Amino acid sequence: MIVAKFGGSSLADAAQFKKVKTIVDMNPERKYIVPSAPGKRGPGDDKITDLLYAAHKAAAEQKSFRHLLERIQARYVEIADELGVEMDFAGEFARIEAQLKAGASPDYAASRGEYLNGQLLANYLGVPFVDAARVVRFSADGRLMEEETNALIAETLSDLRRAVIPGFYGAEEDGTIRTFSRGGSDVSGALVARAVNADVYENWTDVTGFRMADPRIVPDAQYIATITYRELRELSYMGATVLHEEAVFPVRKAGIPTNIRNTNDPKHPGTMIRASAGPDDAGHVITGIAGHKGFSIVSVEKDMMNAELGFGRRVLQAFEEYGINFEHLPTGIDTMCVVVHEKELAPHREDVIRRITELVQPDQVTVSDHLALIATVGRGMVRNFGTAARLFTAISAQGISIRTIDQGSSELNIIVGVDEDDFEAAVKAIYDVFVRT
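Now predict its structure.
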């Protein structure tokens, strides 16, 4: 059994709807479909969700918003007409308008994109529609009630051989609509896959899976055939944005593999994300490379600091007091370095330095900005001697100085810090030494 989620680009217009139907019909195991709202059809176009938020904002400010609803309705009517599907959009939009005038929440407004698209897709595919408000449960403070949701979905779908369940939203027990804050439809699809114990959770989008490096830096970067959820976590944390790891947590917990596929290239197998690698998954030493610019290093130096109980805790206390998260802690015997986001540190730089000085009386505190972090991730690194040496040699051969090094004992990843100006060259050098040679 397969649960297939289709993103906004996959359902942006009638032509995309037809591709989705072809994909669904290609495999009878695709039983449950989770759609997003229509996305952009091209440059300069608007996402339906953005227009709905704009309509809500205008309504809240007691400004005219009917023209926005008319634009949204026209988009759905155009899709439906081309597909030969009949729906009462006039009635639906009259209800939406009335709700917005009555002070409906932004969550309600935004959810209507998926709600209407779900009905449209269900009619087009000829399968039942299940309103996510019935089966995805939130608490009064907006938290997903995962176990209750799991039970509701499982019970509701047990009597339906096929169905369309819109993504992105659910509801409190009293019917108040709530939306997910991040990767909403991805989360919804994962919840459905877990509830029905799917064999595979397919996530259809407009990219053909993950690449081993950012194609803006390495244009011919290879696609990753198989990646583990742990590797995905490392790469997504460092900037890989095809799919956020948090959005597939329900299926990861259930041990269900996730397949990232391209609606516009359905014959490509895409990237398979598994709990663990299989015996036939051997490939390159590394799985992927990802990174970010915009970091600062705060270096705290003090002789014999390793002998001071609680020294590190007190240094981190200074950052915590100003709401700054640390990213990495490369540390020596007499030096502790704290890597943070530059934009988070900037408003509090002098205060943090002063507080560190008060808390630990260091010999010196220095701050270096414009740092980039690069994570090289791969389950194969632990089995290959000299991986770190190859990485460092490749970077140094380009005349690039490594500012920080951080490697966990699991040897799943190696994170290096370089000057921002050297970021792209360092990524290319790492890719070349592990993939091209």
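The domain at 2-206 is CATH 3.40.1160.10 (Carbamate kinase).
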